[in-house]
């Protein structure tokens, strides 16, 4: 496993996993209130604090490029700042989808698969262009079947209506597959159902030449949920499903010394899971980017 080149100032950081290049894109930052649940705060020593006093968390997506497939996981892009979480948080764009793909050397028409980990808006904001056409015309899009109805029920919010329209455009183009359980996308890439964050939440596992990378999506939001996997920082989740999936995937990542990323890690978001004395801990590979 290698870090490619001097990427300290890049919004795209790449790891090699055997014959696969995994590029993690720093798409946006969210200024999120410092909240507590169960008497515990999710803020940790490595949490950047924005000038407005709120915590700064990332929004990352992944490009997996191999000899047989080019796969995007949760590709997103925003042109201007937007409010999220019913106005409690603000999202600030970092790098656009088109610029990120250009840095990765990927043409939209060459993308073969798009994996969507779950239905939340910050994972689905890069599927159609300004004309309402799919951004990736040759790609099969994989979306968890268990999340379709929650997405439909959430359209009272204007942002969710926009995302549902994007999903329907992909479906109308014959490019949408609803997934259930685990699914092998290519010889090196597999989707694994976890549930927890949403009914259909899934993680992405890359294995090549005995090297591994794991994209956790929102299985964890913050490093504190790695050191305390039984603690769920965000309300209205399926806590038992989250805990069970975390125990498995954190243990697997530590045992295999895998490259690991999760959507809301601060940039650059690559890191690793370490285990000692029956406890897990998170370590970022690099010092944080500055917005």
Which properties best describe this structure?
globular, single chain, Metallo-beta-lactamase, Chain A, 291 residues, 32% strand, 10-stranded mixed beta sheet, 19 strands, alpha+beta, disordered N terminus, 5-stranded mixed beta sheet
Structure description:
With 291 residues, the chain is an alpha+beta fold. It has a single domain (2-284), classed as 4-Layer Sandwich (Metallo-beta-lactamase, Chain A). The protein is 18% helix and 32% strand. It is built from five helices and 19 strands. Strands 1, 2, 3, 6, 7, 8, 9, 10, 11 and 12 form a ten-stranded mixed beta sheet that branches. A five-stranded mixed beta sheet has the order 13-14-15-16-17, covered by helices on one side. The chain is globular and about 50 Å long.
Secondary structure topology:
Elements: E1 2-3, E2 12-17, E3 20-32, E4 36-37, E5 40-41, E6 55-65, E7 70-73, E8 82-84, E9 89-93, H1 97-104, E10 113-115, E11 140-144, H2 148-153, H3 158-172, E12 176-179, E13 183-184, E14 189-193, E15 202-208, E16 211-215, H4 224-227, H5 239-256, E17 259-261, E18 271-276, E19 279-284
Parallel strand pairs: 7-10, 10-11, 11-12, 16-17
Antiparallel strand pairs: 1-2, 2-3, 3-6, 3-9, 4-5, 6-7, 8-9, 13-14, 14-15, 15-16, 18-19
């Amino acid at each position: 496993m290698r870090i490619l080149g001097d990427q300290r100032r890049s919004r795209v950081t790449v790891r090699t996993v055997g014959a696969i290049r995994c590029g993690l894109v720093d798409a946006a930052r969210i200024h999120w209130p410092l909240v507590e649940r169960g008497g515990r705060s999710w803020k940790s020593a490595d949490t950047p604090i924005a000038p407005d006093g709120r915590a700064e968390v990332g929004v990352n997506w992944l490009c997996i490029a191999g000899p047989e497939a080019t796969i995007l996981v949760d590709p997103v892009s925003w042109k201007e700042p937007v409010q999220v979480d019913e106005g409690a948080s603000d999202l600030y764009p970092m790098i656009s989808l088109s610029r990120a793909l250009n840095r990765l050397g990927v043409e939209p028409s060459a993308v073969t698969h798009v994996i969507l980990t779950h239905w939340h808006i910050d994972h689905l904001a890069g599927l159609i262009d300004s004309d309402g056409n799919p951004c990736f015309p040759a790609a099969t899009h994989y979306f968890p079947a268990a999340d379709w109805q929650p997405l439909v029920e959430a359209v009272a919010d204007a942002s969710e209506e926009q995302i549902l329209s994007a999903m329907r455009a992909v479906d109308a183009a014959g490019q949408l597959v609803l997934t259930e359980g685990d699914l092998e996308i290519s010889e090196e890439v597999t989707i694994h159902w976890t549930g927890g964050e949403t009914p259909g939440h899934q993680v992405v596992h890359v294995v090549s030449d005995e090297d591994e990378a794991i994209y956790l999506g929102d299985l964890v939001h913050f490093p504190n949920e790695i050191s305390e996997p039984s603690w769920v920082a965000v309300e209205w989740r399926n806590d038992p499903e989250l805990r069970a999936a975390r125990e498995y995937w954190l243990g697997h990542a530590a045992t295999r010394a895998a490259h690991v990323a999760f959507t809301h890690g601060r940039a650059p978001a690559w890191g690793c899971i370490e285990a000692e004395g029956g406890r897990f801990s998170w370590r970022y590979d690099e010092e944080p980017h500055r917005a």
